[in-house]
Design goal:
Rossmann fold; Dna Ligase, domain 1; D-amino Acid Aminotransferase, Chain A, domain 1; seven-stranded antiparallel beta sheet; seven-stranded mixed beta sheet
Length: about 750
């Protein structure tokens, strides 16, 4: 390998839909990999909330825009030996392409490490990509690249409606969509050409499955697949908008190996070096397939695959970019296998996107080929039923799981199934409750029957529990519910009992979760990972308490508007400080995009729910001395008082003082006691009282819930009708606290 002394790493700049914390994770791992080789790292990223811009990582950080103009200035000043383009998402990739077109790399004699610019162009330019794959007889959707609206209309008519429109060099499916007639083609093409000079008009593969493989290749042509993933939703919904399951659950052995072989053949032909993602459309009825796209960079799917498999994709990709081979490198997570060993999973991972569409008035809730989600969660379990229900609770949208919810109902469930929104999975269970069959739902949604039967299993368990309503549930039924992912509060609603009684009932029965390690070797070798999860589908704990001074740090959970990578920065720095002080650190978080869920940030990591039930279980199993709630934002903060009342030591600010700051009534009362001016206020218990208060002080009035994030459900009401509407919304979000 040629000696390299300094490398520029391009970050992804500001967080945006399609580019979030996953590139903080990938960039941080790349920096660590280069530092291990004694290489000076120069990071360009203006995002101050990221871990990678912290002083303990990169040698130098330039808080500058990731654009060709500014990056060239840094290159001219620093004169690096090389540059990495694949760790900052589409922003870094597009910047690298522009630098190459301007001959900046040649001018300053800078090597592009890993996948070369010509290869990036072949994967980003839709026509070049189709031509390249045709060379090895790999199928892509019938498509034509066009450069103006009239061409788009002509091509769409030739292919036959409906058609898909996609943009080259785009982020998160930006500007893409389904068109069923000429008018829609004209409308979407006009919008698309505002972002790019080239769009692709292609056949629409309605009802086909969407499958992904994460692939790693070195410069010596060694190539492996690290993880395959299956979208719950069929083609037509962006993979970033879909529920995703790893490993795939409905593929036959033939289908799995056929797609794996094609993936390796494609990546070798393209000569990608490092990590990439290949996406397929698959028709299980005919065994036909299409390659949709290849991302020649780390992506959100890469972050998910890395955390799901225990394979440090970004770290390995950076090493491969330096010239190492897969057989040279050891997997730093397993500590047993080499990097050329493909992970084998004995558990199921479910990813669900998080949307914040309700924060915007008059916005469409429909989901499709363009991303709208702002974050995602990752749950781990031993069955699909268990893992799906855990993931739904992790979204923190006020649901207790797939059933047992009062806040999500549909007037027209058939329309909801046919026209997917962010809540379609709940429409499926409502349709089943109304007597719709699995086959009927499959016809409307094209979701594989396997997934629908599993959802029906959850409904059957729910119905069984409900037969004990108002009384004591049998041990057999309660155990079945816990194994199907039902939470204590979910069961309490079905039984019409307090949550505490359900928790005590299962403890009396001896129904307790066990701790399992993420065993990425499927018992072929001893597992040594510090990635952990809880499950009721097991009998023995893989690990026991360390016996050391242990502190639980609660993470921020899913990214959403108002809570993002800044809280991950807080958590990571808190863990590092605790380690320096000699404490055994345990992180609890379920966000695969974060640095805090990396294998090397803490002593133990639980990919688990940030709920009272789960934190109590982990606290007692680990025999912790305390819990740190103040680093992860609103989510862990909301648990402080309840944990305190349950006898769990909350470190830092007293939970009573947290409550005084969060509870609107207590906080306003405190200001009155201290003689601090504030707007006139009342805590009111009925709509009529609220209207009377508004009449006395005169409209407009401000509705403010307690214990909420970034003003959720806070609104200015100008009249009685608005007041009623806003109070109803605020009550849904802050049910246990005053408004």
């Amino acid at each position: 390998m040629e000696k390299i002394n300094s490398v520029i790493i391009l970050g992804s700049s500001a967080l945006k839909i399609g580019e979030a914390g996953e590139f903080d994770y990938s960039g941080s791992q790349a920096i660590k990999a280069l530092k291990e080789e004694g290489i000076e790292t120069i990071l360009i990223n203006p995002n101050i909330a990221t871990i990678q811009t912290s002083d303990h990582l990169a040698s130098k950080v330039y808080f500058l825009p990731v654009t060709a103009e500014f990056v060239e200035k840094v290159i001219a000043r620093e004169r690096p030996d090389a540059i990495l383009l694949g760790f900052g998402g589409q922003t870094a990739l597009n910047c690298g392409l522009e630098l190459a077109k301007k001959n900046v790399f040649e001018k300053y004699n800078v090597r592009v490490l890993g996948t070369q610019v010509s290869v990036i162009e072949e994967t980003e330019d839709r026509k070049l990509f189709a031509d390249k794959l045709a060379e090895i007889d790999v199928k892509v959707p019938r498509s034509v690249a066009v450069t103006d609206i009239e061409q788009a209309v002509e091509v769409a008519a030739g292919i036959g409606y409906p058609v898909m429109i996609r943009i080259a060099f785009a982020l998160g499916g930006l500007g893409s969509g389904l068109c069923t007639n000429e008018e829609e083609v004209r409308e979407l093409a006009e919008k698309a050409f505002a972002y790019t000079s080239q769009i692709l008009v292609e056949e629409y593969l309605q009802g086909w499955k969407e499958i992904e493989y994460e692939v790693v290749r070195d410069s010596y042509d060694n190539c492996i697949t690290v993880c395959n993933m299956e979208n719950f939703d069929p083609m037509g919904i962006h993979t970033g908008e879909s529920i995703v399951v790893a490993p795939s659950q409905t593929l036959s052995n033939h289908e799995y190996h056929k797609l794996r072989e094609i993936a390796i053949r494609v990546i070798r032909h393209l000569k990608i070096v490092g990590e990439c993602n290949i996406q397929y459309a698959l028709d299980s009825n005919s065994d036909d397939y299409r390659v949709i796209e290849v991302n020649a960079r780390l992506s959100r799917s890469s972050a998910l695959a890395s955390k799901a498999t225990g394979y440090p994709l970004a770290f390995i990709a950076a090493k491969l970019a330096l010239g190492y081979s897969l057989v040279d490198l050891k997997n730093a997570i397993t500590k047993t296998t080499m990097a050329c060993f493909e992970p084998a999973l004995d558990y199921i991972v479910v990813k669900i996107p998080r949307w914040d569409l309700k924060k915007f008035r008059m916005v469409s809730k429909r989901i499709g080929s363009g991303m709208k989600s702002v974050g995602e969660v990752m749950a781990i379990g031993r069955t699909f039923e268990e893992t799906l229900q855990k993931a739904l609770r992790m979204l923190e949208i006020g649901v207790n799981g797939l059933v047992g919810n009062d806040n999500i109902t549909f007037d027209d469930v058939r329309t909801e199934l046919q026209n997917p929104t962010d809540e379609r999975v709940f429409a499926i269970i409502q349709a089943m409750q109304q007597g719709m069959s699995v086959d009927e739902i499959h016809q409307l949604t094209h979701i594989d029957r396997w997934f629908l039967h599993k959802i029906h299993n959850i409904l059957e368990v729910s119905n069984e529990i409900a037969t004990y309503r108002g009384g004591i549930c049998s041990k057999k039924s309660l155990r079945a519910a816990k194994r199907a992912g039902f939470s204590d509060i979910q069961i309490s609603k079905l039984l019409d009992l307090p949550e505490s009684e359900v928790a005590q009932m299962r403890r009396n029965y001896g129904i307790l979760p066990v701790v399992k390690q993420i065993d990425t070797l499927a018992a072929e070798y001893p597992a040594r990972t510090n990635f952990l999860y809880l499950t009721y589908n097991g009998q023995h704990n893989d690990l026991t308490a360390s016996g050391k001074k242990t502190v639980l740090v609660l993470g921020s959970g899913v990214y959403r508007i108002g809570s993002s990578v800044e809280f991950d920065w807080c958590c990571v720095n808190a863990v590092k400080t605790l380690e320096q002080l000699g404490y055994h650190t345990i992180m609890v978080n379920y966000n695969p995009e974060t640095v805090s869920t990396d294998y090397d940030e803490c002593d133990r990591l639980y990919f688990e729910e940030l709920t009272f039930e789960t934190i109590v279980d982990i606290y007692h199993k680990e025999q912790a001395m305390g819990v740190l709630v103040s680093m992860g934002g609103q989510t862990p903060n909301n648990l402080a008082l309840r944990l305190h009342k349950a006898g769990i030591k909350v470190l830092g600010t007293s939970p009573e003082d947290i409550d005084r700051a969060e509870d609107r009534h207590k906080f306003s009362s405190l200001l009155d006691e201290l003689g601090i001016d504030q707007p006139e206020w009342r805590e009111l218990s009925s709509i009529e009282e609220a209207k009377k208060f508004a009449e006395n002080v005169s409209y407009p009035v401000l509705v403010r819930p307690s214990y909420v994030l970034s003003g959720s459900a806070m609104a200015v009401a100008s009249n009685d009708a608005e007041l009623e509407r806003f109070l109803a919304k605020a009550t849904d979000i802050s049910q246990e606290h005053p408004i």
